[in-house]
TrEMBL record:
UniProt function note: Catalyzes the phosphorylation of riboflavin to FMN followed by the adenylation of FMN to FAD.
EC number(s) given by UniProt: 2.7.1.26, 2.7.7.2
UniProt-recorded Gene Ontology molecular function terms: ATP binding; FMN adenylyltransferase activity; riboflavin kinase activity
Lineage: Bacteria, Pseudomonadati, Bacteroidota, Cytophagia, Cytophagales
Riboflavin kinase domain boundaries: 184-310
Catalytic activity entry: FMN + ATP + H(+) = FAD + diphosphate; riboflavin + ATP = FMN + ADP + H(+)
PANTHER family: RIBOFLAVIN KINASE, RIBOFLAVIN KINASE/FMN ADENYLYLTRANSFERASE
NCBIfam families to which the protein is assigned, alphabetical: PRK05627.1-3 (NF004160), PRK05627.1-5 (NF004162), ribF (TIGR00083)
Tree of life domain: Bacteria
Family assignment from sequence similarity: Belongs to the ribF family.
Protein name (Swiss-Prot/TrEMBL): Riboflavin biosynthesis protein
Pathway: Cofactor biosynthesis; FMN biosynthesis; FMN from riboflavin (ATP route): step 1/1; Cofactor biosynthesis; FAD biosynthesis; FAD from FMN: step 1/1
């Protein structure tokens, strides 16, 4: 997959089959659109092209939404997820206030026709584009012959009678239902960050943890609690259990922290990059009457986490 930051490097695309959108999370519904895009490109000996935008348009149009709308994927995560779908080209357009003023007609003429040379446009059932989201499937069908390309709409995709959407996945994660979120995504939801120095309380009770500083403050963090997780550090995958919360038994901090106890791992990894993928929520955060009760619960959590992680290995 060739990644284009802007339209300047796009040249001589052959029979471009195009889609566009934010594609946050690259979930089950997104993959249906991309599969169809790639299928058409193969049949017509063309090149599949996906146009996306960064930063998220809502952050530019409604700056206050940065505190309300958290994203399922960082830009790097989105690129990696899209590359795995077998696209030929990814076009990342910087979304600015000026860009947001492009009308649907201007977007079509300047981006889809002049820059990319679109032969066919494939869009999801609810996709809109251009200033004030004025462009729609109906608009494209009505005017497509004037622009010189065909348009195909992908109907609403459903999973267990529930329409898959980034919004529903966010809701699942904020409710701690990572299993439902993973099912909608088609992969395990994860966060990436750097291991930072902590207060080493976990080490003093036999459960050393790596404190994680997440790379992006726009990234959605699941509901507080204890989770069974998969952990990637220094190129290797491990099992683990992760806590999101304020650790009320051992501190009076008001700031929420993310810390993971990695199973069968003893190396020092301060300042190292780390990735954690969520498997199952084990329990909510609790306050215990002392460290002895806390350790007893952590032992139960570890046994429970290992059980769920082993079940996944068996299924794979």
């Amino acid at each position: 997959m060739k990644v284009h930051y802007g339209i300047e490097s796009i040249q001589n695309l052959q029979n471009a089959i195009v889609t566009s959108g934010t594609f946050d999370g690259v979930h089950f519904g997104h993959k249906k659109i991309i599969d169809r895009l790639n299928e058409i490109a193969r049949v017509h000996h063309g090149e599949s092209v996906l146009i996306t935008f960064w930063p998220h348009p809502r952050y530019v149009l409604f700056p206050e939404s940065k505190h309300q709308l958290k994203l399922l994927s960082s830009l790097n995560e989105k690129i990696n997820l899209l590359e795995a779908q077998g696209l030929d080209h990814l076009v990342i357009l910087e979304f600015t206030k000026d860009f947001s003023q492009l009308t649907s007609k201007e977007f079509i003429e300047q981006i889809l026709i002049q820059a990319i040379g679109t032969s066919k446009l494939v869009i999801g059932y609810d996709h809109r584009f251009g200033k004030n989201r004025e462009g729609s499937f109906e608009y494209l069908k009505e005017h497509g012959h004037l622009f010189g390309f065909d348009v195909e709409e992908i109907s609403k995709q459903e999973l267990e009678d529930v329409a898959v959407s980034s919004t529903k996945i966010r809701e699942s994660l904020l409710n701690g239902d990572v299993e439902k979120a993973n099912k909608y995504l088609g992969y395990s939801y994860g966060i990436e960050g750097t291991v930072i120095d902590g207060n080493k309380i976990g080490r003093s009770i036999g459960f050393p943890t790596a404190n994680i500083e997440v790379d992006s403050d726009a990234k959605l963090i699941p509901q507080s609690g204890v989770y069974a997780v998969k952990v990637k550090v220094e190129g290797e995958w491990y099992g683990g259990m992760l806590n999101i919360g304020k650790r009320p038994t051992v501190t009076d901090d008001i700031k929420e922290v993310i810390e993971v106890h990695i199973f069968d791992f003893k190396d020092t990894i301060y300042t190292k990059p780390i990735r954690v993928e969520f498997v199952k929520k084990l329990r909510s955060e609790m306050k215990f009457d002392g460290k002895t009760s806390l350790v007893r619960q952590l032992e139960l959590d570890e046994a429970n986490a290992r059980k769920h992680l082993n079940q996944i290995k068996t299924m794979q």
